[in-house]
Amino acid sequence: MDTKEKQKLKIRAAKIRRHIIEEVHSASSGHPGGSLSCTDILAFLYFEKMKVDPSAPRWADRDRFVLSKGHCAPGLYATLAERGYFPVEDLTGFRSADSYLEGHPSMTMVPGVDMSTGSLGQGISAAVGMALAGKIDGRDYNVYAILGDGELEEGQVWEALMAAAHYKLDNLTAFLDHNGLQIDGNIRDVMSPEPVSEKFRAFGWKVININGHDFDQIEKALCEASATKGMPVMIVAETTKGKGVSFMENEAGWHGSAPNKEQRDLAVAEIDAMIEKLEAEQAEK
Amino acid sequence: MGEDKNIKIATREAYGAALAEFGEDKRIVVLDADLSKSTKTEMFKKKFPERFINMGIAEANMMSAAAGIASCGKIVFASSFAIFAGVRACEQVRNSICYTKLNVKIGATHAGISVGEDGASHQAVEDMAIMCAIPNMTVISPADSVETRQAVLAAIQYDGPVYLRLGRLAVPVLFDEKDYHFEPGKGVLMRKGSDVTVIATGLMVHIAAEACDMLKKEGISARLINIHTVKPVDKGMILDAARETGAIVTAEEHNIYGGLGSIVSSVTAAGMPVPVKMVGIQDKFGKSGKPDRLMKMYSLTAEKIAEQAVEAIKMKRK
């Protein structure tokens, strides 16, 4: 990825963040904090890494993506819309009864969603299933998933991790969106899943630790994941909950609450200023 | 109907045999949770090891993984005991399989108290109620091995989630493969009768047949209906029976709450109110013991069905 491409992706990620704020604000509900923390990973996967075709969302040989932390649907929907799966204008219908943009990802309603999620722990298991199916059929697609760190408290996650290692699913790469916060506060205070990297390793996964907001690191980790044979890969991404909107950053309160008009304006102004700055830099280069 | 009481085959046995028989279809993938010897999926595993996946003792992961595999165009059979498949993993069945309407068939063996010696912890008495309450789920409870074989085939041909409720205990073969045709959602009229209708499912069908013989000796003409598809249920056949015989007895190896009795009652209450007596597990957990002894202890007997038929007839409006 050259500097120009990277700059373009940064602008894309900022646009996704802007959509997230608009979606959650229009719905007066939803989950901005965790959507913002995994935005850069989503942007990289859909715009740089994954073999997908928005005009054929069910293409059999496509790479699959499962948002195991399904409550971050605003981030996924914004990414899918930017990628061309459905009109960006539809995003403000998020969570409304007249819209197809269901509160948590729905594979039967939303184009581009590969698995319905929302009940934590189930998405990573479904991703394991997709990877198993790829092995059975000898297809060379890859399966990607994003897990939340609070989600690790669900026992099913560990059942899934055990199965992925047992069946040597090297076509499966998961990201841990390690933002450190869950609804009731710091994950270390609520129910600590730490030390996460050691646990993943003990469960038979290759672990790569990165900064989840740095595209160079995301790119390098994904290259390493692609080259890894015989085991699944967990990319532990250190992230900031609420990333990109300063008053939301590292605040557990923004896990599942929507900005009011004033807060929306403040957030959008900050993101727009960022987009303007990035575009100016792009013009200079 | 070629009824030969000398031949007894467990429906789980017929399930494993059917998977092996129809397993040539490369879309079929079978999952089990370390119980393949008991659920009989081992028969498929021996023939098609490349499409058999042991998921270990982890039913929640098995159900959601089944959904993931099905999302890639496969027909997945996920098997375990009913207590684990239908009760323990019920939320995975709901959200990963039914909400998505994915092509997953749940082969739930060891349903009911006829599990026997393993006892209450392993005897699902509520699985049918739970599975029936989930939108998009089809629930099938076959009466014998012939019906099970055809139900497996029907499940393969149907695109969507199916719960197959199967038993551990060997039960009489009621049907003849040559003249039996399984039609999902359709009841099977097994005996004509005009005084009362016995509606049964699963292994209670052969016991209900005995009850009809007993009633015949007392001069009572009992109709017998086998409801293999508990959901969607054959409302037409139930309403005809209510209209024409005026009294119903249901028989199931399941809690009377939320099972066949509840479903039949809701159909008749709305369409043709008649007395409905329910023979089933009276809101109790099972226990350890020989299956035959337990069936008597829990009043899942021909005598009980016949007695309740007489009671239902007495309640008919003059």
What does this protein structure show overall?
The complex is a heterodimer of chains A (285) and B (318). Chain A is 46% helix and 12% strand. Chain A contains ten helices and seven strands. In chain A, the strands form two sheets. In chain A, strands 1-2-3-7-6 form a five-stranded parallel β-sheet, with helices on both faces. A two-stranded antiparallel sheet of chain A has the order 4-5. The mean pLDDT of chain A is 97. By secondary structure, chain B is an alpha/beta fold. Chain B has two domains: 7-173, Thiamin diphosphate (ThDP)-binding fold, Pyr/PP domains (Rossmann fold), CATH 3.40.50; 188-315, 3-Layer(aba) Sandwich (Rossmann fold). Chain B is built from 13 helices and 14 strands. In chain B, the strands form three sheets. Chain B has a seven-stranded mixed β-sheet, sandwiched between helices. Chain B has a five-stranded mixed β-sheet with strand order 9-11-10-13-14, with helices on both faces. A two-stranded antiparallel sheet of chain B has the order 1-8. In chain B, helix 1 (11-22) packs across helix 8 (145-157). In chain B, 62% of the residues are buried. Classes of the chains: A alpha/beta (285), B alpha/beta (318). Chain A binds chain B through residues 60, 66, 106-108, 114-116, 118-119, 121-123, 125-134, 136-137, 155-156, 159-160, 162-163, 166-167, and chain B through 29, 50-51, 53, 55-56, 58, 60-61, 63-74, 91-92, 95-96, 99-101.
Report the CATH topology name of chain A.
Rossmann fold
In angstroms, what is the radius of gyration of chain A? 18 Å
Domain count of chain A: the total is 1
Low-confidence stretches of chain B: none
| CATH level 4 superfamily of chain A | Thiamin diphosphate (ThDP)-binding fold, Pyr/PP domains
Number of domains of chain B: 2
**Beta-strand residue percentage of chain B:** 15-25%
